[in-house]
Amino acid sequence: MKRLMMKQLAIGGALALASTTVLAQDLLIRNATVHTATSQGTLQGTDVLVRNGRISAIGRGLNGGNAPVLDAQGKPLTPALFAGINDIGVEEVSGESATVDHRLSLGSGNKDMQVRPEFDVTTAYNPESVLIPVARVEGFGWTMLAASPNSGGSFIGGQGGAVRFDGSLDPIGPKVLFIALGGDGANLTGGSRAGQWMILDQLIDEVRGRIPQDSQFALLTPAGRATLAKYFGGGGRVAVGVHRASDIRRVLRWAKARNVRIALVGASEGWKVADGIAAAKVPVFVDTLANLPGDFDQIGATLENAARMSNAGVDVAFTLSDSGSHYARKMRQVAGNAVSYGMPWEAALAGLTRVPAQTFGVGDEVGGIAVGRRADLALWTGDPLDVAHTATQVWMGGRATPMKSRQTELRDRYLHRNETALPPAYSR
User: Where is the signal peptide, in residue numbers (predicted)?
Assistant: First the structure.
């Protein structure tokens, strides 16, 4: 026990040194178990040298020159993790409309449907959201902002994008189009799943000019047509929210016929059609904690969903079904649960790093530890997929980030309230 405490103190002291150089972008991390999340796999007892915010070298016995040195003492080092598909930075308090920007409300009912795929939720992103440090201290460095389907009858929510948790205002990488199909989208298309495919075909006809812009049946603005044209015919990624196995099969068939690059989100019954998903090379984002039939689209939900799809050759990544913005820190638990139900550990780590990065076209920026990439890193006390362990330091672009959030500050305040003076309102 004494030896363990001494090691923890040594790591803590080194991390304190790193924290005093928050503005520095040079760093040498020695003797780490480096989970690269690349083809290099896991490297034992390895050094990582950071120069000007990017990884300069990976190997043993590296010479860091004047760079600050941190002895990891064999602890795991990973890329900063993916926090799922959520609303961090565009939804602060769900019950306060002034803080909710992830949805475009346009009228009500099918009669007034307005399809606005040009809606871009990233223009509302607030990098100073108090939710960001909550996720970041848990080892998460980036997320995908989602545009939710609107209350005006459109199952096309709009566009989202990947953002870093480093205070940057602008997204990284290409935009992603969000669509809700199946039961979630049926109430937005006349109450029938068949209506979804009818309207999708009409939208394609509009994009290709077969329905004039001034037609009484047209659903798109000129900007909407230009936006959708980027996603049809092999263009940008379309994230399709869908759960039922039969709906997934139909989505795969439609995407192939229309040459649309899709990713499935949800896919509670994906395990039933895993071979088809793997053959189509479509990545899937799942919530492994969703194991009950929340609705009739998820009758076949199971804790083994991620493992079965992964073992069938599907690229599986993780997200949360509900409250993703406030509970993104639970993404490690989501991945850990997948491992406990049969998913290989390396595949689960990839689901928080490589798979989402490649899916959303930001693989050269995030999701891996390799020479030339930005040094978005997390050092752990132990297995990063085990919630019994924590991140001891997170670096964004080589800069050590403060390992505190509103929650940790409140915790420390009240744990030590008898040791420090409190404002009169808190005095007994």
Answer: 1-24
